[in-house]
Amino acid sequence: MTTTATVTSQELRQAPVKRWKVADVEALFGQPFFDLLFQAQTVHRRHFDANAIQRSTLLSIKTGGCSEDCGYCSQSARYDTGLERERLLPLDEVLNTARAAKAAGASRFCMGAAWRGPKDKDLQPVVDMVREVKKLGLETCVTLGMLQEGQAEALADAGLDYYNHNIDTAPEFYGQVITTHTLQDRLNTLQKVRGAGINVCCGGIIGMGESRKSRAALIAELANMDPAPESVPINNLVPIPGTPMAEAEGLDPFEFVRTIAAARITMPTSFVRLSAGRQEMSDELQALCFLAGANSMFYGDKLLTTGNPGTDRDLALFSRLGLSSL
Ligand code: SAM
Ligand code: DTB
Ligand code: SF4
Question: What is the pLDDT of residues 6-31, one digit of tens each?
Fold first, then answer.
């Protein structure tokens, strides 16, 4: 008896279709820079207004003291990063920040908590935040770590639009970045999010010392999700003193742009977000990222624990490039 004989047609239908081979994504990366940009911009214009950028504002609702060992993170309790731990913020403080974000022009408000995952007692206050932020007329997003049974449904009932949970890096590099939970754990949470009808926001970090092949493998892994995430944050590592990644060698900025372009080409209808690391980028580099198909950004002077360009700088950039917001 051969193994194939035991595979039923139903199983075959359910098998994930790996549309993108890592080698094919690597071939995208390997093109001359302008050919890659032209291809990405062509794909981008087929699906989006090429002059419009979506803006999300981030707020850390529970900072520091996380049990996990993610090697890039300022909030892991395992590294001495000098970060002060904070309790869960009260609802009125969250709402004041959300109102200010809306007034400044953000369309989505993303709340992040430094948890391995929420305990059931942690979830209720977050559910209340989602419901009340939604009432302000903002799209809602949360990033709370790994979810247990029933938690995604509770968030969906409150009106949650997006759940952010990144696979962070390529499968083969993952073990060098995180050991306290697996890539499969993260995929299980993403499945719960999908199952509850919430949009998926899932991306990764580059510039952690991974190879180009690993960057291509990260993009292939994301693009082969079925369906692909609606929102794909591409973070450039913000090196945090005290973490294992503090001394990672910085990435060639053009390689960052190439990664954005590969995400755009392989996930043509997803929003690709130019995420962490923007503060350290010149306006010209950001413009190249938009040309490569990035059409979303974090907006507001803080990410979770690190800085982001001020709104004045971003508004000036929008004006100089003739960009509008989504
Ligand atoms: N604890 C939750 C989790 O891990 O899913 C939510 C918060 S976590 C800080 C959200 C994401 O931010 C991480 O998955 C990672 O991709 C990104 N991130 C965290 N620290 C970063 C850094 N120093 N530089 C770039 N991206 C970072
Ligand atoms: C994502 O991919 N990037 C954001 C958001 N999702 C939650 C977080 C970036 C964090 C950068 C480091 C910091 O501010 O601590
Ligand atoms: Fe940081 Fe999230 Fe990892 Fe905790 S689980 S260390 S908050 S990235």
Answer: 555 555 555 556 799 999 999 999 99
Give the catalytic positions in this structure: 66, 70, 73, 110, 141, 201, 273
Amino acid at 108: R
Question: How remote is the CA of residue 22 from the centroid of ligand 1, in Å?
Answer: 24
Residues 6+ apart with CB under 8 A from 56: 106, 107, 108, 109, 110, 139, 141, 273, 296, 297, 298, 299
Residue 89 near residue 114, CB atoms below 8 Å: no
Q: What is the spatial distance between Cα 19 and Cα 304, in angstroms, rounded to a whole number?
A: 34
SS3 (DSSP) at 313: helix
Is ligand 3 within 6 A of the CB of residue 61? no
Name the token pair of 74. 């300022």
Name the DSSP letter for residue 64: S
Q: Quick one: what percent of the chain has pLDDT higher than 70? A: 94
**The token pair that represents 126 in the structure block:** 């977050």
